[in-house]
Every structure is written in structure tokens, then in C-alpha cells.
TrEMBL record:
<feature type="domain" description="Glycosyl transferase family 1">
    <location>
        <begin position="174"/>
        <end position="339"/>
    </location>
</feature>
<dbReference type="InterPro" id="IPR001296">
    <property type="entry name" value="Glyco_trans_1"/>
</dbReference>
<dbReference type="InterPro" id="IPR050194">
    <property type="entry name" value="Glycosyltransferase_grp1"/>
</dbReference>
<keyword id="KW-0808">Transferase</keyword>
<dbReference type="Pfam" id="PF00534">
    <property type="entry name" value="Glycos_transf_1"/>
</dbReference>
<protein>
    <submittedName>
        <fullName>Glycosyltransferase</fullName>
    </submittedName>
</protein>
<dbReference type="GO" id="GO:0016757">
    <property type="term" value="F:glycosyltransferase activity"/>
</dbReference>
Length: 373
């Protein structure tokens, strides 16, 4: 994932090494210190045994644990950072056998999924007890983990870092002929609220016939969303462009007038932390229209640095879009405040420095008392 790659490669006061089960797109993400430890041949059967027979999250075997311990010893590792809470549950045998500190970071989808199952909840609590620090991308994720049973003094806010030099703020010129250009970027999955996007856009387009919507991303909802756009009568004005590189995404942002991201909680409990694409859009000068979901209100103040509406409320979203389209000066001010909010809270260098401080804190064993430190 790009946001993880950015974080790892920006570290300056520690030497990172990466252990992964496989490596993809190495030309896009160049990094030398990678050890690939493939899944064992028995992984599929082991996973079935855990999930279907034990109804519990699968965990790595003794052999895998030994191999990972060997890699950590050979690299003289002083700290283990596991990305995503559910991965840390799978690696619990390693965490409990390794004598040095472990840090786990939660990003959103890995907090509440499957936790209605007692075995999954128990394993997650056990993992949270075993690690030294728990990093979360938003205060809302931290609150959810405290409710789950995580010790508050372990939690640190570690926000997404946005490289502002890659998303330079550019003022937009607002159309006077109704040819508004909207964009949404992200995986085509339930929590991104794409059905709400299409419904709200269709309502907006009834008053602004030249409006266009571009949806960038891939995912399982593509076919359904294409059919929905046709059914709503906006099939010719909605473009599904698939995966967009960073350069393509930046160009799309600068060609657009408003960014939509009406996130919602998925049926499996899947939630957002603070969406990366939304922050990048804000940094570039795009006014953001989103929802009071997950960590989004920690980045967007309604009516000041963006617009927030309730989850799944397409009518409210359409109404706010129409209101702001009629107030171009207010839209410009909102865009400026949005970019300022990203620079203040999510600038990459500052966030990487905070991550390094978390590493040093975990290695010394002296935990600070504040969960918002």
C-alpha cells in the first residue's frame, strides 16, 4: 500500500527492513531491504481448520514462527512493527515468543471486523495485551480499541502522512455554465459509499446537465455501480476509469471541482480511518464532501474545511452540493481551509518523526500516559 511505502521509506533515524509473504510492483515501489517468506504449502488447509472447525482467526505455525524469529535475529532487529491489527492476530505466536517490543498499527478496516465472534474478540484482546504500543490513524479508532479492552496508555495517534510537495495547492476556477466535474477515488467497496455518490450526483445533474463524475479505482462493486449509473439516467456522465497512478490521480484532481467521499460502515463492521485519497484531494485544493464517519471529522470541519453529511444520506449530500455550487466564493474559502487542515495535521515529515518517537518509546519501555500524545 502506498501510504505504508511512503512511511517506511521516509524513516531517517531507524533502519527499516521489510518481511512479507510476497512482493508485487517492485518497479513502482523500489526498496532493497525486503525478505520474502512465502506462505507454506499447508497454509490453505491450516486456514480452513481454524476458520471452519475452530471458528477462530488462524495463526502462524511453529515452523513459521521459528523462521521469522531467525530472520529477526539475523537482522539484529530491535523492534517489530506489524501493520494492521488482524495481521497481528495471525502473528500472535511470534509476538508472544519474541523477547523484544512489538508495535501494531490499526488503519480502519482492521478494528471491528468479525469481533462479534467470541474467539476473534478474545484473540484480538490477547494480541493487544501482548504488544508494547498500539498506533491508530484516528481518535475514533483509538476509542473503539479502548471499548474492546485495549489499555488506553498504549494507544498513540499516528496519522497518515501526506507528501505535500506532491499535491501542491492550486486554486480552482468554478464553472459558470454548470459543467461541474466531480471525482471520487478509492477501492470500489461498500465502505466507500459509492451508491450514495451516484444518487447524489444524479440529483445534482438534474439541475446541472453538463456535470460529470469520474470514479477512479477498482473493486467488486464495479458492475453494480455501472448498472446503477445507467438506471439513474447518468450513465453517459459517469466515467469509471479504473486504477489511477499517482500522476494520473493528481491530474484528475487538478481537472476537477469537488471531491466526493461519503464513507459508510460496511455490513461486516468495516470502517475508515482517515481516507488517504480524501486528504490528498484536500491538499491539492479540492473541496471535499464526505460523511460523519470514522476519523473523517478529525480532518474535516463541516462548513469550514469541507462538508459533512450523515452516512447513506444521498439527499443531504445532493443538497449541500447544490448549495455550494451556488456559492463559489465560499467554495474557494473552504478549499483553502481544507488544504491548511491537511498541512497542520497530516504533513508527512511531521508524522514520520512522531512514528520514530513511538519506536524509541517502545524500545525504552517508558510509556507516556496520554493516548493522544
Amino acid at each position: 500500500m502506498l501510504h505504508i511505502y511512503r512511511q517506511i521509506t521516509a524513516l531517517g533515524r531507524v533502519r527499516p527492513i521489510v518481511i512479507a509473504q510476497k512482493r508485487e510492483a517492485a518497479e513502482r515501489f523500489p526498496f532493497d531491504a525486503v525478505t520474502v517468506l512465502p506462505k507454506p504449502a499447508t497454509h490453505f488447509l491450516r486456514r480452513i481448520w481454524y476458520r471452519q472447525l475452530k471458528d477462530a482467526p488462524w495463526q502462524i505455525s511453529r515452523g513459521e514462527t521459528a523462521r521469522l524469529l531467525g530472520i529477526l535475529a539475523a537482522e539484529r532487529a530491535e523492534l517489530l512493527h506489524i501493520y494492521f491489527g488482524h495481521i497481528a492476530v495471525h502473528l500472535l505466536p511470534l509476538i508472544e515468543r519474541w523477547a523484544k517490543p512489538t508495535v501494531v498499527s490499526f488503519h480502519g478496516a482492521d478494528v471491528m471486523v468479525d469481533l462479534e465472534k467470541p474467539a476473534y474478540r478474545s484473540a484480538t484482546v490477547r494480541m493487544l495485551d501482548a504488544v508494547r504500543l498500539v498506533l491508530v490513524r484516528s481518535e475514533s479508532l483509538g476509542d473503539a480499541l479502548v471499548r474492546l479492552g485495549c489499555a488506553p496508555d498504549k494507544i498513540r495517534i499516528q496519522r497518515t502522512g501526506i507528501p505535500l510537495h506532491e499535491f501542491e495547492f492550486r486554486p480552482r476556477s468554478w464553472p459558470i455554465d454548470g459543467s461541474w466535474r466531480f471525482v471520487q477515488a478509492g477501492r470500489l467497496i461498500e465502505k466507500k459509499g459509492l451508491r450514495t455518490t451516484l444518487e447524489a450526483f444524479a440529483a445534482f445533474a438534474r439541475e446541472h446537465r453538463s456535470a460529470q463524475l469520474t470514479i477512479a479505482g477498482e473493486g467488486p462493486l464495479l458492475g453494480e455501480l455501472q448498472e446503477m449509473a445507467q438506471r439513474l439516467g447518468v450513465g453517459g456522465r459517469v466515467s469509471f476509469v479504473g486504477f489511477a497512478s499517482q500522476a494520473e490521480l493528481r491530474a484528475l484532481f487538478y481537472q476537477s471541482h469537488m471531491f466526493l467521499h461519503p464513507s459508510e460502515t460496511g455490513p461486516d463492521g468495516n470502517q475508515e480511518g482517515v481516507p488517504n485519497a480524501m486528504l490528498e484531494a484536500m491538499a491539492s485544493g479540492l473541496p471535499v464532501f464526505a460523511t460523519t464517519h470514522g476519523g473523517i471529522p478529525e480532518a474535516v470541519q463541516d462548513g469550514v474545511s469541507g462538508v459533512l453529511v450523515p452516512e447513506r444520506d444521498a439527499d443531504a449530500l445532493a443538497q449541500r452540493l447544490l448549495e455550494m455550487a451556488a456559492r463559489p466564493e465560499a467554495l474557494s474559502t473552504m478549499a483553502e481551509r481544507g488544504a491548511e487542515a491537511v498541512a497542520e495535521k497530516f504533513e508527512q515529515r511531521a508524522q514520520v518523526r512522531k512514528l520514530e518517537e513511538c519506536y524509541f518509546e517502545a524500545m525504552t519501555g517508558r510509556l507516556r500516559a496520554s493516548a493522544n500524545a
